[in-house]
Amino acid sequence: MQLLSQFLKHQKTDEQLVELIDTLMVACKEIALQLREGALAGILGTTDNTNVQGETQKKLDVISNDVLKKLLLDNPLVAGLASEEEDDPVPGNPDGRFLVTFDPLDGSSNIDINVSVGTIFSVLELTPGDDPALHSTYLQSGRRQVAAGYVLYGPSAVLAMTTGKGVNFFTLAHTGDFILTRENVKIPPQTREFAINMSNQRYWEPAMQNYIGDLLLGSDGPRGKNYNMRWIASMVAEVHRVLTRGGIFSYPWDAREPAKPGKLRLMYEGNPMSFLIEQADGIASTCRAPILDVQPGEIHERVSIALGSREEVEALLSYHSADK
Ligand code: AHG
Ligand code: MN
Ligand code: MN
Ligand code: MN
């Protein structure tokens, strides 16, 4: 059995990055404990607040955000943070080295029905001279991430993480240690499983409608095989399934908010998940370009997402290039 800290040292991970990851895991363990209490601690349900996304905040959105903020700002390595639940970036130690962007509780709509949720994090470095109180400081492309991952609070709590040397899974033991349970995860290039919110079908662009329509034709259609569908409504759970057994997950542009490229956020959903997917030999695309190449214009900007098994995502992209 290898502990997370031992594994990171074995991978010769930068010592300060190991220390930051340890802080993130202390926070995620606290969140996992709060989630386990659920209704008993009176922490289900919503608050009266609306976040910058226009979403009604769940009590656990706020609790998990506060846990992460407090622990990260207590770590002198942290120059600043940006969160789904914070309108503006929160500056930390001006001499700090790392910027952390995070989705403290992903899949919030599932919290009251006791379905898996997660915490997503992305680590960037402060460009010397930049002010961590300013939005511009965080607007770095996903290629600049030094680490990214999530903790999925499911039947077991599982950390999936990369520092650019592959993807590894760690399971939270009753001792409070994250133990290596799967090393060098690689996504199968082919799949028969797709994940998309079908209720939005009439709002998609034609290329997406045509692609999904062909999946539904199964072995009689151009894809030549039958597919199964999953939709959990927690991106962390969908991505974990894709990393674990392959698949394609998409939340594409839709006409409900045509000025926005989709529902999911680039800086703390799209980028960290895309780093993981590419490190596991999958593809993560906006349907027109790699997500990691997108140059952010604002911290809470949205991004269209299609990610997963290489050959399946390539098939989807062929519908979009044909549809120029
Ligand atoms: P969050 O709970 O952090 O706001 O994210 C929810 C996201 C993502 O986790 C999930 O894939 C998607 O919303 C589900 O959207 P629909 O409810 O429209 O299906
Ligand atoms: Mn939300
Ligand atoms: Mn989310
Ligand atoms: Mn969230």
TrEMBL record:
Localization per Swiss-Prot or TrEMBL: Cytoplasm
Cofactor, free-text remark: Binds 2 magnesium ions per subunit.
Domain Fructose-1-6-bisphosphatase class I N-terminal: 8-183
Protein's UniProt keywords contain Metal-binding: yes
UniProt superkingdom: Bacteria
GO molecular function: fructose 1,6-bisphosphate 1-phosphatase activity
Catalytic activity: beta-D-fructose 1,6-bisphosphate + H2O = beta-D-fructose 6-phosphate + phosphate
Cofactor(s) of this protein: Mg(2+)
Record keywords, A-Z: Carbohydrate metabolism, Cytoplasm, Hydrolase, Magnesium, Metal-binding
Residue intervals of the Fructose-1-6-bisphosphatase class 1 C-terminal domain: 187-320
Annotated residues for binding of Mg(2+) 1: E84, D103, L105
Pathway where this protein functions: Carbohydrate biosynthesis
HAMAP family: FBPase_class1
UniProt xrefs under NCBIfam families: PRK09293.1-3 (NF006779), PRK09293.1-4 (NF006780)
Family classification: Belongs to the FBPase class 1 family.
Full protein name: Fructose-1,6-bisphosphatase class 1
